[in-house]
Write a structure and sequence with these properties.
two-stranded antiparallel sheet; 481 residues; 20 helices; 4 strands; 74% helix; single chain; mainly alpha
């Protein structure tokens, strides 16, 4: 005799509850796995935010303790209780003098302005510049289809980590003159480049003629910013503009106008009398021979060796990340053509240094920036392929490493600042004394910091002691070595 429930026999009923129980267990397992993934993803986001905020804070602290260094003394004077208008008025007059007699670059004028302002203003401007640079580079380094808050935060973190771990010369972030002269114009230049790289950014930034006018003015300023960056970027920008004209997009006229004004700005910089005067001075002072095939060959070799020597951490990291991606078959090499085309301006930036009268590593800034973009893109793609727990561990390890380096940078700048402050206090105590009138003896400050971390410009101080004397209003002379 079978026991039944509403027409179902006992055996069938038991099977029904067993199947239902199994289904409930499987559903519970899936829900638990989903919840675990969500928790891991949340923890990853928290770690990203934590390290990003911490590194930004450390960047602000480093710049806030960064003392006067080298050319800083030549571009400003001491302001005691001067008002903003007094400071700005002096900066304008000094900028006119500097641009007409020595250096017409926009960055030089920005340095004069910010050095005339209270240090806290400059510190805020520098922090904003570092943040904007990290964010703009994250837009280049993150696939356009994946532009979201979390992804861009991750890429921004990877960018600032790369700054501390790999950037060949941290002086552009923490030396006052270099920050205004290179960091701020670099941010402006990359913002100008963004609509050419991304159609989405093009729609966002050039949708109205007002915004286009702003970008046209930005193009003029960017053209006045660097001697070697516009000739590296203009072919890329012109080619992208050509593609827009070929496809008859609605932004072709705006992009063409920006390219034209960017070219005009660069032409104004290169034809400025001060540019010719400065170039002629270096040719004479450095005893540079007349241009010839032999000269350009040796100069090209010297530039290439200088780039490799200063960029070794970037190049080794790029090769390593590429190797890992190929080994794991992440497919990260399948990128849009516009992404790979960025390597052309990088190469042209390096090549353009051949024409310079001397090799300054900061001239490779655009090339370093593009290498950072490629490294961050490959690292981002790699993290996307890793299990979430492993990705979390990788982010924590990278974050801890960069915080450690940032701590070392802060310690080096604190030590250097202490030495500069001691010398400054010594000079200030002697102002209006006979020693200042006859010649106050000071010592050159030495430090053992890696030039990647801190560029000690005391050689400039020794060679331009009259300008340092003018800053302190005290005749200075160097002690015997």
């Amino acid at each position: 005799m079978q026991i039944s429930f509403h027409g179902l026999d006992y055996k069938t009923t038991l099977n029904f509850f067993e199947i239902r129980g199994t289904g409930m267990k499987e559903s519970s397992i899936v829900e638990h796995q989903d919840l675990t993934k969500q928790n891991i993803a949340t923890r990853v986001e928290l770690w990203v935010f934590f390290f990003l905020a911490l590194l930004m804070l450390l960047s602000a602290l480093i710049f806030s303790v960064s003392p006067m260094n080298g050319e800083d003394y030549a571009l400003t004077k001491q302001f005691n209780d001067a008002s903003f208008f007094e400071r700005a008025s002096w900066a304008i007059q000094r900028s006119i003098q500097q641009s007409t007699h020595w250096n017409a670059r926009l960055g030089e004028q920005l340095a004069i302005f910010w050095l005339a302002m209270p240090k806290v203003w400059f510190s805020i401007a520098n922090l904003i510049s570092i943040f904007l640079l990290s964010f703009i580079l994250s837009l280049f380094a993150t696939p356009e289809k994946k532009w979201s808050r979390n992804n861009l935060m991750l890429s921004s973190l990877l960018v600032i980590i790369a700054f501390f771990l790999l950037w060949p010369r941290l002086e552009i972030f923490f030396w006052r003159t270099a920050s205004a002269g290179y960091l701020q114009p670099l941010v402006m230049t990359l913002l100008l480049l963004l609509p050419f790289y991304s159609l989405r950014a093009c729609r966002l930034l050039l949708s109205t003629w007002l915004s286009t006018t702003i970008f046209v003015l930005l193009g003029l300023l960017c053209g006045l910013s660097f001697e070697n960056v516009p000739p590296a970027l203009l072919p890329y920008m012109a080619f992208i503009t050509y593609l827009h004209f070929k496809k008859k997009t609605e932004f072709r006229t705006q992009l063409g106008l920006i390219v034209l004004i960017y070219l005009v700005g660069w032409a104004l910089l290169m034809t400025a009398p001060s540019t010719h005067a400065r170039t002629a001075y270096y040719i004479t002072a450095l005893n540079i021979p007349a241009a010839s095939l032999g000269y350009f060959f040796h100069q090209s070799l010297a530039v290439l060796l200088a780039f490799v020597a200063t960029s070794t951490p970037l190049l080794v990291t790029l090769f390593t990340v590429l190797l890992i991606n190929f080994y794991l078959k992440t497919g990260s090499w399948r990128q849009p053509a516009r992404f790979y085309l960025l390597l052309v301006p990088a190469a042209l930036c390096i090549a353009s240094v051949v024409k310079a009268p001397y090799i300054e590593p900061r001239a490779f800034t655009l090339a370093w920036t593009i290498l950072i973009i490629v490294i961050v893109r490959l690292t981002y793609e790699l993290l996307q392929q890793l299990p979430e727990r492993l990705a979390q561990v990788a982010i924590i390890c990278l974050g801890i490493s960069s915080v450690g380096i940032a701590g070392q940078v802060l310690a080096d700048y604190l030590d250097y600042s202490r030495k500069v402050s001691w010398r400054t206090d010594f000079i200030m105590e002697k102002q209006n004394s006979n020693e200042c009138k006859d010649g106050l003896t000071i010592q050159i400050i030495k430090n053992n910091s890696d030039i990647r971390i801190l560029n000690n410009r005391e050689d400039w101080v020794a060679g331009s002691l009259h300008q340092v004397s003018n800053y302190f209003n005290c005749k200075l002379r160097l002690s015997a070595p």
